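Our consortium's second objective concerns turning raw sequence data into structural hypotheses that experimental partners can test. To show how far this objective has progressed, the report includes one record in full. It was chosen at random from the queue rather than selected for favorable results. The single chain below, 289 residues long, was entered without modification.
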Amino acid sequence: MDTAAFLAQLLNGVQYGLLLFLISSGLTLIFGVMGVINLAHGSLFMVGAYLAYVIAAWTGALWLALPLAILGGLGFGALLEAGLFRRFYQREHLDQVLLTFALILLFEEARSMLLGNDFHAVPVPAALDFSVPVVGGFSYSAYRLAVLGVCLLVAALMFLGIERTRVGSAVRAAAEKPEMVDLLGLDARRIHMLVFAAGTALAMLAGALAAPLQSVYPNMGDGFLIIGFVVVVVGGIGSIAGAFWGALLIGLVDTMGKAYLPQVAGLAVYLLMAGILLWRPAGLFARRA
């Protein structure tokens, strides 16, 4: 076995898994706290990728897309929650699915009108367009290492925020005992808005980071949405730790499968999910009631 190629695929799998974590953590938070199945989450990933494409084309400074994706995602997510989703919390899941499906169509139509239907390449920032020696004679892309670092930083901040702060305690309480949140005098509406805005920002940040790693194209969020839901199911709904470890597992299995077992790579992730659900039906890190 070619050691350099194996290490490259291993790091690619970890990097892909961490991008999946950014997407799936937003999905699992929104579903875990509000009970909303947000099928438009993949479209928000696409919005982040197109934002990076536009920023890179207009300014040449791709790094500007990262803070804009976070701030824009927070603001856009808050508007979506207050303007649309808040009215659907008490509705059936079918109504929520229809709402998010309508949003997908709106996002796609807006994207087509504003930016067309072509594929676009987003260049890697010049400051990170080189390889970094890792071990022995093996070198790895500096941009991919930067993506790893950003994703790990976000994951660490999320863990600290959810597990070590009063805001995180309120979010956990809203997910597990929502009636207690109101009894304690906390503003459940603000918690819901905060969670939805954070999930939107994470999806758009993931899109902006992924833009230079692949082409930016219509419907690019669909595949990430499906695999994001697989991560949520494998990790356990509502669990940030589950989303993290589930995303790493799925990222590694998918990447290594495509590299070394391409004949079954398309099924490997779903077979893994089926096996885990047979073993632990609620997911690997499902929270106890």
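The partners drew two points from this record. The first strand starts at residue 131 and ends at 135. Strands lie at 131-135, 138-141. Both points have been shared with the crystallography group to help prioritize constructs.
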